[in-house]
């Protein structure tokens, strides 16, 4: 991988581009981002060997989810430093370099962050600085170009681009500002369409959102870890197997806490487990002369009816607990309800025994 040097005093030949490839196959959805000189990027995408500044394949949506955010306007502050220190010949004298050096250090840090939006912005900032300094209107050109480049960074502190307000603002920004994007269509060794921008990341964000919409993907926030992720529908609330396991453990703990003082639950669990153990024997062929279809129907009926009986028992217990009576009277009434519920469960257990031929 090629390393960009933020102390360069002259631009290299060829413009630096940001190339996005959205990959959709039967087995995966992913994004590939390449940042480099245009001819090098083309060569790499066509299966050749070339030196670029950035080339990574990541899960789909990563570019949008980890986009550079700038709540304090730090990028614009460094732009102001560059704008006010536009070098003339000689290109950099010692006193002028001392003023510009902190910007170079900032851009180097952003470049080393490996986040493609920050990497591209860092390179483009220095490239534009070197490109515009000899021009008569260099300060204005530098300001106009970099203002549009940095705009999404501040927008990300308020909302994500797939939120309705952001979509409307993005449309206005594209209409009024930089909207140049090239599409490099698939060829022999380049099986996927490539979206390429040269100065602003706004068109890439718009292109990305359009593709997600075409693929019928929605953006969700994981209810366990809080991270954004792309999902096939709104029914997906968890982003990974790790979060699914964690959610299952939490749900189990919450359930146990909820039923800790519920005496109907252990009675129901015992009866259900008895039916389930019988059904497992039937299903595995370990029960002789048992009609599996008939037992399955009876088991399903038990589950449905037992759930209803349990709800009725719980409601009746709640009524007794709310009554203004002595503790002994409450306990006697509740015990009667539990005995009736348990009696019904035992009758159902007898039915299971009959079906099993016991």
Task: Quote the beta fraction.
Answer: 5-15%
Q: Enumerate how many helices there are, as a single number.
A: 12
Q: What is the spatial order of strands in the main beta sheet?
A: 3-2-1-5-4
Q: Mean pLDDT score, rounded?
A: 86
- The domain tally reads 2
Radius of gyration: 33 Å
- Structural class per helix/strand content? alpha+beta
Distance from first to last alpha carbon: 74 Å
What are the segments in which pLDDT stays under 50 over at least 5 consecutive residues?
none
Q: Count all strands and give the number.
A: 7
Helix content: 55-70%
Order of helices and strands: EEHEHHHHHHEEHEEHHHH
User: Main sheet?
Assistant: 5 strands, antiparallel
**What global shape is seen?**
elongated
Task: Write a structural description.
- This protein is α+β, with helices and mostly antiparallel strands.
- The chain has two domains: 16-215, no CATH class; 259-356, no CATH class.
- It has helices at residues 38-45, 62-65, 74-84, 94-112, 116-132, 138-155, 164-176, 202-214, 241-258, 264-283, 292-322, 327-356, and strands spanning 16-24, 29-37, 54-59, 182-184, 194-197, 218-221, 228-231.
- The strands form two sheets. A five-stranded antiparallel beta sheet has the order 3-2-1-5-4. A two-stranded antiparallel sheet has the order 6-7.
- It is elongated and about 95 Å long.
Any chance you could write out the topology, listing elements then pairs?
Elements: E1 16-24, E2 29-37, H1 38-45, E3 54-59, H2 62-65, H3 74-84, H4 94-112, H5 116-132, H6 138-155, H7 164-176, E4 182-184, E5 194-197, H8 202-214, E6 218-221, E7 228-231, H9 241-258, H10 264-283, H11 292-322, H12 327-356
Antiparallel strand pairs: 1-2, 1-5, 2-3, 4-5, 6-7
Helix pairs in contact: 3-4, 3-6, 4-5, 5-6, 10-11, 10-12, 11-12
């Amino acid at each position: 991988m090629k390393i960009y040097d933020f102390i360069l005093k002259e631009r290299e030949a060829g413009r630096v581009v940001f190339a996005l490839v959205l990959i959709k196959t039967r087995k995966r959805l992913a994004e590939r981002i390449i940042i480099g000189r245009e001819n090098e990027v083309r060569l790499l995408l066509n299966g050749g060997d070339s030196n670029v500044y950035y080339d990574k394949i990541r899960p789909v949506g990563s570019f949008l989810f980890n986009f550079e955010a700038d709540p304090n306007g730090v990028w614009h502050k460094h732009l102001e430093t560059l704008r006010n220190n536009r070098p003339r010949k000689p290109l950099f004298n010692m006193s002028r370099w001392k003023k510009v050096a902190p910007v170079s250090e900032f851009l180097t840090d952003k470049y080393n962050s490996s986040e493609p939006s920050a990497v591209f912005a860092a390179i483009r900032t220095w490239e534009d600085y070197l490109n515009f300094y000899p021009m008569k209107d260099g300060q204005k050109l530098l300001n106009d170009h970099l203002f549009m480049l940095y705009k999404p960074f501040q927008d990300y502190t308020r909302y994500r681009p797939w939120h309705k307000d952001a979509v409307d603002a993005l449309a206005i920004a594209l209409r009024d500002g930089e909207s140049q994007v090239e599409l490099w269509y698939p060829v022999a060794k380049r099986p996927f369409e490539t979206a390429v921008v040269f100065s602003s990341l706004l068109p890439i964000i718009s292109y990305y959102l359009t593709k997600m919409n075409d693929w019928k993907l929605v953006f969700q926030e994981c209810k366990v870890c809080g991270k954004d992720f792309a999902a096939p529908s709104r029914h997906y609330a968890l982003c990974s197997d790790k979060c699914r396991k964690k959610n299952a453990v939490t749900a189990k703990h919450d359930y146990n806490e909820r039923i800790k003082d519920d005496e109907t639950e252990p009675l129901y669990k015992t009866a259900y487990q008895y039916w389930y153990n019988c059904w497992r024997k039937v299903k595995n062929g370990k029960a002789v002369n048992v009609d599996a279809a008939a037992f399955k129907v009876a088991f399903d009926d038990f589950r449905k009816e037992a759930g209803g009986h349990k709800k009725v028992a719980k409601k009746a217990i709640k009524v007794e607990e709310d009554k203004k009576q002595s503790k002994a009277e409450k306990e006697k009434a509740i015990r009667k309800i539990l005995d009736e519920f348990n009696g019904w469960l035992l009758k159902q257990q007898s039915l299971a025994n009959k079906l099993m031929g016991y």
